[in-house]
């Protein structure tokens, strides 16, 4: 017993100066904030149908040809699935065959992608800004700043029937390469914006967002849903009607950290969960001191962030959960898209897309 107490005292003596040093040291560009009061540490929302072994139902598509396929856009007329890759290429995958073709090099890191009415592609390029790729594969920059503030991490994107583009800048302070610093600081550096191709004007619609991510236009074109990753919530922004310009809660207290969101044309939004909520992340969220400690340690030692229980949740147009797909071995899945009878999904780290045959899924047919 005495030996045990002596060991604990020795550990305390070693840790005490470390704790004191962390408490006293204030980095110039990093100041972790407490979580907003509306953030919930209580029980997460649940889904009535849940497949917790999604990897067992998944098959790989384009293995080795698709480094970090982050978001997905489907061209039903051409039978192509488009995705932005870590090497700057937009690649397309034939559906259902799975053949991969290099389509266009955008430079930077393309994240969100959506089809334009003319058959081109709108790209949220994390490193460059909002881009347009013509059907002839010509790449143009549409915008890279708003209100005099440059984008640092252009992220999610969608487009309305009239051609107005809605997109997010996850952070005006941190780039994709150190986006975890933005998460650890837990300050609202994100914005939701619109771009009008007719005027070339970029407008800020909502600011002070916590890692603003995916965007999806509602089927009636009257509103959009946008995700805030670290807050584990999605909100509705009204773009038309009596409520134009206002924000409402769509869903919060998600079981994981939302990334991209897509409407499937059949009554459901599919929200990617890049990682599940864990005890470790709850501790970091609760205590800014721990986040500062992690930040300082990462200055000298690379700390691996390995989220697990990643996946997706499908919800109705009113935000009611319908089904969920997760797996303990899944991490950093970023975009899920329903195409016919299959559910396709991408990732920041894998070199392929995955797909699930929904006709064989217990989460869809119980």
Automatic annotation (TrEMBL):
Record keywords: Glycoprotein, Phosphoprotein, Signal, Vacuole
Q: Where is the Strictosidine synthase conserved region domain?
A: 155-241
Phosphoprotein as a keyword of this entry, yes or no, is yes
CC annotations in GO? vacuole
Q: Where is the signal peptide?
A: 1-21
Q: Where in the cell is it found?
A: Vacuole
Instruction: Tell me any Pfam family this protein matches.
Output: SSL_N
Per the similarity annotation, which family is this? Belongs to the strictosidine synthase family.
Q: What is this protein called?
A: Strictosidine synthase conserved region domain-containing protein
